[in-house]
Amino acid sequence: MRRPRHPIDLRALQAFVAVCDTGSMTAAAKQLGVSQSAISQAVSALEREQGTSLFDRDSRPPRANSAGRALLELAAPLLDHAQRVSARIDEASDAGNASVRLGCVDSFAATAGPELIRALSGSTRQMALWSGLTPGLTKQLHDREIDLAVCTQTVISDPRIVEIPLFSEAFVAVASRRFLASRPAADWRTLAANLPLIRYTARSVIGQQVERFARHLGIDSPRRYEFDATDPLLSLVAAGLGFAISTPLCLWQARHYLDEIDVLPLPPGGLARRDFFLLHRESEWDGFAAELISLTRGVLDQRIQPALQQALPNLPGDAIR
């Protein structure tokens, strides 16, 4: 008669998963910030409590055996549920005063971010604002390093992540005011025929989006200048060394160049806009997510879009919607 197995110890399970993921006790210890002996003891205790070996001890690095693989398949939802329970308890115990970690793409963090912080300054809730690129932010959200994320054109495979459309903005062609003044009837085709395209780097989501849109428009410009950020990109545009395809938020992020540049509309279509989404885990931070959506749309409608329209009268009316 088989003796009954003990309930799974979650810390031991976390150690077991770390060994499977990293391929060694040493690497698992480094990942979890504990000693190697603590990992070894946790895995041994798990095997002892479950009454079976979980690793093929003859393989190097250690590999999960059939029992270990079965446990590994079930481990992720168990650990994730435990984290969700802990997060909900923390929220409840703080009675609405919990500090929320919000990750944003750089252009959003630098433009809407300060206005959001100002709008929340009168509340008791504390907010930490992180910025970065969409791929890194989605990984941070998945790894629970942040609580919510504002990203662009995401591809989320985790059904536990809620994706809420936030707003969209149109791509526009950007050139120096001096160049456009010398060609009063210029449109985006004039720019493409006479100037090189100054690009965002392809490792960024906006760089990939611009490249797809440029190909769709038939813009065949050699690769000469590529930048991670809008500020150096606009410095070349303002100097008349090329034109760019950018967005209203990116332009507002580098707004000290607005007196030297102007915009021209680009053809509408499926590739002509950049979409923003708010991401958070299901059943977590629902109330704050709704508050954040309302605040963001208010900031865009009442502050950023009117200021952009004043600085760039040629900006399309639906540039941000």
Plain-language structure description:
Keywords: DNA-binding, Transcription, Transcription regulation. Residues 8-65 form the HTH lysR-type domain. It holds the Pfam family HTH_1. It comes from Caballeronia mineralivorans PML1(12). Belongs to the LysR transcriptional regulatory family. The radius of gyration is 25 Å and the shape is elongated. The longest helix has 29 residues, at 66-94. It contains twelve helices and twelve strands. Helix 9 (205-217) links the parallel strand 8 (197-200) and strand 9. The chain folds into two domains: 10-92, Arc Repressor Mutant, subunit A (Orthogonal Bundle), CATH 1.10.10; 97-321, 3-Layer(aba) Sandwich (D-Maltodextrin-Binding Protein, domain 2), CATH 3.40.190.290. It has 321 residues and is an alpha/beta fold. The model has no long low-confidence stretch (mean pLDDT 86). The termini are far apart. The protein has a five-stranded mixed beta sheet, sandwiched between helices. A five-stranded mixed beta sheet has the order 9-8-10-7-11, sandwiched between helices.
In short:
Keywords: DNA-binding, Transcription, Transcription regulation. 48% of the residues lie in helices and 19% in strands.
Q: What is the residue-mean pLDDT, rounded to a whole number?
A: 86
Under the CATH scheme, which architecture of the largest domain would be assigned? 3-Layer(aba) Sandwich
- Look up the CATH topology of the largest domain: D-Maltodextrin-Binding Protein, domain 2
Q: Can you identify the CATH class of the largest domain? A: Alpha Beta
- Radius of gyration over C-alpha positions, nearest whole angstrom: 25 Å
Number of helices: 12
| Sheet with most strands: strand arrangement | 4-3-5-12-6
Helix content: 40-55%
Q: Terminal Cα separation, in Å? A: 67 Å
Unreliable spans are: none
Bulk shape: elongated
Count of individual beta strands: 12
Biggest sheet features: 5 strands, mixed
Portion of residues in beta strands equals: 15-25%
* H and E string: HHHEEHEHEHEEEHHEHEHEHEEH
Structural class by helix and strand composition: alpha/beta
Total domains: 2
